[in-house]
């Protein structure tokens, strides 16, 4: 077989056989198919797509390029969760301990952020001492002991995705359904949970820009999960504005603590309770939103979070410390009215330039910097009132304020945003 023939076949819109896909994935990981051919193949997939059978072959062959975690030593139904990426997405930090506080084990591997999107792992590393790298044995033992662990994705897991994701990132081939579905589901299948909740984001700050595209991605991933015997549910969620109040690693930890104490914004708190209800349902634990919310209000979820942080070496005193930055810039509203848009991608990139995110993989992060919104879409605002605060260690200039203000849309026609747009199960 020759890679060039397979690229040409896909370029011309033909289907690849199971054997051809196996050969390509194995060759890529072994280094016999070079990056330049794999990127041409990814671009051909971007334009011509893949059939359900091809996506399934790609996914399962990717799974085989690494270690598969065996979580059978942990009692109960193990539920995992994955988001296709967002801005201000601190959901896992709250959801994992919240679900675990009901006795449902959560063994979760998370990733890092890149570009405008944040990553749970970076947020956890903003906690002094928190270790994201654990052996499989330690990870399993911690879930057996306290019911929850969130660690970094093992280097041994789905090697094909590690290589391919980095390549897609620099060849404009991330945002295509077959490659996102196989990337996400190969990792989830290899990570070994019995049930999977997929958060498929849609909107300006997400890879999927329309609900139709998000629905197709969600259905593709749900089908892949079910085909290998994993209970899988996808929720399509809004990513047209940042999630919650904060963007930035420590700022998001502080917001997560606020929500875990039952003091968060109502919209994000309710959203997380809805996700928890679905995750618990996947483990056959039926709870009302009121019962779930009680675990935020009575401190049970927070206690579980603190237990997890301590078990992974995190410093519980430092956890609650306010951020330390050189400057806090207040952004006043330029008009009176109702906030109608806060484009997630624009603010994700803005926060990235403050040091909260990475433009390229090797960039260092400044864990303290970022944005806290005082107002979100649908909130009323008076001219001159503070819409947000910018936390920076860099140079301050009037452009930082005017650029921010340019993105804040007031009275442009309020969209009624719901966090969960649709559930696909
Ligand atoms: N998240 C992933 O893990 N993979 C993708 O391809 C996109 C989002």
| Gyration radius, in Å | 21 Å
Task: Look at the helices and sheets and give the structural class.
Answer: alpha/beta
Q: Which kinds of small molecule does this entry bind, naming each only once?
A: uracil
Q: Examine the secondary-structure arrangement and name the CATH architecture of the largest domain.
A: 3-Layer(aba) Sandwich
How does the major sheet shape up? Answer: 4 strands, mixed
Listing every helix as H and every strand as E from the N terminus to the C terminus, the arrangement reads: HHHHEHEHHEHHEHEEHHHHHEEHEEEHEE
Kindly state the percentage of residues in helix: 40-55%
Number of helices: 17
Unreliable stretches: none
> What order do the strands of the largest sheet run in, or round the barrel if closed?
1-4-5-13
**What shape does the CA trace take?**
globular
Number of domains: 3
Binned strand content: 15-25%
User: Between the first and last Cα atoms, what is the distance in angstroms?
Assistant: 39 Å
Mean pLDDT: 95
Please give the number of β-strands. Answer: 13
Domain Pyrimidine nucleoside phosphorylase C-terminal: 338-411
Keywords: Glycosyltransferase, Metal-binding, Transferase
GO molecular function: 1,4-alpha-oligoglucan phosphorylase activity; metal ion binding; thymidine phosphorylase activity
Family: Belongs to the thymidine/pyrimidine-nucleoside phosphorylase family.
């Amino acid at each position: 077989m020759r890679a060039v023939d397979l690229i040409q076949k896909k370029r011309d819109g033909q289907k690849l056989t199971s054997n051809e896909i196996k050969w390509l994935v194995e060759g890529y990981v072994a280094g016999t198919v070079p990056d330049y051919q794999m990127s041409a193949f990814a671009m051909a997939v971007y334009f011509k797509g893949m059939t359900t059978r091809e996506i399934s072959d790609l996914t399962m062959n990717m799974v085989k390029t690494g270690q598969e975690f065996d979580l059978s030593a942990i009692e109960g139904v193990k539920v995992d969760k994955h988001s296709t990426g967002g801005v201000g997405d601190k959901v896992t930090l709250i959801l994992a301990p919240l679900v675990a506080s009901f006795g449902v084990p959560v063994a979760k591997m998370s990733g890092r952020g890149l570009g405008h999107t944040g990553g749970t792992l970076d947020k956890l590393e903003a906690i002094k001492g928190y270790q994201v790298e654990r052996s499989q044995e330690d990870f399993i033992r911690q879930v057996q002991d306290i019911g929850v662990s969130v660690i970094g994705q093992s280097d041994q897991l789905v090697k094909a995705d590690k290589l391919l994701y980095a390549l897609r990132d620099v060849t404009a081939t991330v945002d295509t359904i077959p490659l996102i579905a196989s990337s996400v589901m190969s990792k989830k299948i290899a990570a070994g949970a019995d049930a999977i909740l997929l958060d498929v984001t849609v909107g300006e700050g997400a890879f999927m820009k329309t609900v139709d595209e998000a629905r197709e991605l969600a259905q593709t991933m749900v089908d892949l999960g079910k085909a290998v015997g994993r209970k899988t549910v996808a929720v399509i969620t809004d990513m047209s504005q940042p999630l919650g109040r904060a963007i930035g690693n420590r700022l998001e930890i502080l917001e997560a603590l606020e929500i875990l104490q039952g003091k968060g914004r109502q919209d994000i708190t309710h959203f997380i309770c809805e996700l928890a209800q679905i995750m618990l349902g996947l483990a056959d634990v039926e709870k009302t939103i009121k019962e779930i919310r009680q675990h935020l209000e009575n401190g049970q979820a927070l206690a579980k979070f603190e237990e997890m942080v301590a078990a992974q070496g995190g410093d519980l005193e430092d956890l609650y410390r306010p951020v330390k930055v050189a400057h806090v810039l207040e952004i006043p509203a330029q008009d009176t009215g109702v906030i109608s848009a806060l484009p997630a991608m624009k603010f994700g990139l803005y926060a990235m330039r403050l040091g909260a995110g990475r433009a390229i993989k090797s960039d260092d992060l400044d864990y303290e910097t970022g944005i806290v919104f005082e107002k979100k879409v649908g909130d009323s605002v008076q001219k001159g009132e503070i819409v947000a605060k910018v936390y920076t260690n860099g140079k301050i200039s009037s452009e930082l304020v005017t650029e921010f203000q340019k993105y804040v849309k007031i009275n442009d026609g309020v969209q009624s945003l719901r966090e969960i747009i649709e559930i696909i199960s």
